[in-house]
Write a structure and sequence with these properties.
By secondary structure, the chain is an alpha/beta fold.
């Protein structure tokens, strides 16, 4: 999903109290932006993060909560009491302190809401992870986030852009790299509000997703040969 900036009303100070660390300094929550085509394995990665047993409280913002398929036995009492129906809720909380919510119209607004929720429950996030749509352009998302840190400080208070991660399907990357079709011809790779009119070549977007990333996760390596893995590296 390509974010669009707009003027927003900041949350009241009482709802967004500043979190302080042991030294009395404001605690800043790192935010990771997760990119990759539909089917690359982003959802599986997010599920592992949410179900972590390391005590990390991770807030995850996704395109569709229902697709994450969280184990009902791991839901909080509140969520379980609601039937544990992920599809019926915008925010799902787990017993380990993690939570997953649906991406709103503006991904920056969704981060602000996630921070507000942490303040309301009195439990800060260790990390926030935002899933972009399969055909989102990570460079634009990154730049919009950085601009918003100046123009929308109240919304993003207590956060910082930390890492860009791209999940790559190792079993299809080399084949897709040789193709010259366009984003609006490949709905199987993901869709957003602009993909129907997006005539950018898929290979260009693939290269951007890799070049912008701080971390590249090669997934489905079991479906490739050692020679293909070496070429990918």
């Amino acid at each position: 999903r390509t974010p669009r900036q707009r003027t927003m009303i900041a949350e009241p100070e009482a709802k967004r109290a500043k979190a302080l660390d042991g030294a009395g300094k404001e605690r800043v929550v790192p935010v990771t932006l997760l990119s990759g085509f539909l089917g690359a394995g982003k959802t599986t990665l997010l599920k592992h993060l949410l179900e972590n047993k390391l005590g990390l409280k991770i807030g995850v913002i996704v395109n569709d909560v229902a697709e994450v398929n969280i184990d009902k036995s791991l839901l909080s009492i509140k969520a379980a009491g609601n039937g544990g129906s992920v599809a019926q809720q915008d925010v799902i909380e787990l017993q380990n302190g993690c939570a997953c919510c649906s991406l709103g119209e503006e991904f920056l607004e969704s981060i602000g809401k996630m921070m507000t929720r942490a303040a309301e429950r009195g439990q800060e996030w260790d990390h926030i992870v935002v899933e972009s749509s399969g055909v989102a352009e990570p460079r634009e998302i990154r730049d919009n986030f950085r601009d918003a840190m100046v123009t929308m400080q109240d919304v993003l208070q207590g956060t910082r852009l930390d890492t860009l991660v791209t999940v790559v399907d190792a079993s299809t990357f080399l084949t897709e790299y040789e193709k010259r079709n366009r984003v609006n011809q490949r709905t199987d790779l993901g869709a957003d509000d602009y993909s129907e009119t997006n005539t950018r070549q898929v290979v260009d977007l693939m290269c951007e997703q890799v070049e912008c990333a701080d971390v590249i996760l090669l997934n489905k390596v079991d479906l490739t040969t050692p020679a293909e893995i070496e070429l990918l590296k």
